[in-house]
Request: fold
Amino acid sequence: MSATQRSGLGNGRLLLSLLLLAAWESGSGQVHYSVPEEAKHGTFVGRIAQDLGLELAELVPRLFRVASKGRGDLLEVNLQNGILFVNSRIDREELCGRSVECSIHLEVIVDRPLQVFHVEVEVKDINDNPPVFSLREQKLLIYESKQPDSRFPLEGASDADIGENAQLTYRLSKNEYFSLELPINSKPTKKLSLTLKKSLDREKTPEFNLLLTAADGGKPELTGTVQLFIRVLDINDNDPEFEQSEYKVRLMENTAKETLVIQLNATDQDEGVNGEVTYSLMSIKPNGKSLFTLDENNGEVKVNGTLDYEENKFYEIEVQATDKGNPPMAGHCTVWVEILDANDNAPEITVTSLSLPVREDTQPSTVIALISVSDRDSGDNGQVICFLTSNVPFKIVSTFKNYYSLVLDGSLDRESVSVYKLMVTARDGGSPSLSATASVSVEVADVNDNAPA
Reply:
């Protein structure tokens, strides 16, 4: 063996070692940072080059780059000092909604040799959203014959923040007739309600205008208000009553339009028109007004739009039953609709960082390309396996959750095969399963390995 051949073999072994190290590092996810949402442009996040063990001088020559799937250019790296910084506005609520955990996953890639690192940047919540009531004014009709300790449901506020920043407390403007009964944290379905403290007299006080204030747990706190208009009625009557105050229903996403969700029934102990009940929708949260209909005469709730698990998993429907008395009286119930996932999203495949063409003397286990897969479904429907065309000198190696490397698994001979047409297939665990494919063309580059004939 010549010195040149021994040198080439040594270099090949060195390259193999470096590529194996890169594959190990790509699965480690060892670097974590955190940054508050709404941080200003240029805010320091971390010394990413130093923390990844990279020298500043090698960032540009090794084509240092950062990819953040679906996250745009929220974060950038200064290649002069290796610092990760905030590049554009980060809104945690826009990024992750009400999810407790929120992070930006960065894929850091360098060449020569090819290495990939996974970096997680946790986005911390700040108290930037005040409590919001869906209505400017809530109207209540209360008979003067109502006894002290009677309770009347109120619609509470919502806060787009999380944690303490979304923990709401309520206070009512000073008055001698009404107090608040607050929700209990251990029972999230416990409704905010108004409690009557002393008997009413319509002839003395026919109406009340009270101010309800919601304050969050941030420091400093943010508040929202709603006006409560209470009309005291003069006629002693009975409220319509539902069989339950709360109902829970489960529906598969993509359930057909006009499908019956539930048939509600409220009864009124009064006779004649005072006991005849009609139904109306008070609210559908979040933003589901067009997705359900309610028959005002028979209380049937039906699907009226497309239910998408990936868009929203729960709906809260507030229904009011009103009798035909003069003045009318009302009862209320809540229907909780849980949307169940169907396998309606095929996996998606992304192939990046192709190292082409591949020399025919490339050593086995060399990384040729990086592959990532994703599926918007949940559970088994979102679990994806990835595999490659059979009978080719390549294989797919898992490096991180839903991340793979396409590596050489045998020897190449350009004189035998100059181009490989590979097919990458991703299949989810749904029943029936859905799959997606991506083609990768690998060209084999010639080396001088044949003597003249």
Q: What stands out?
A: Helices lie at 3-26, 48-51, 92-96.
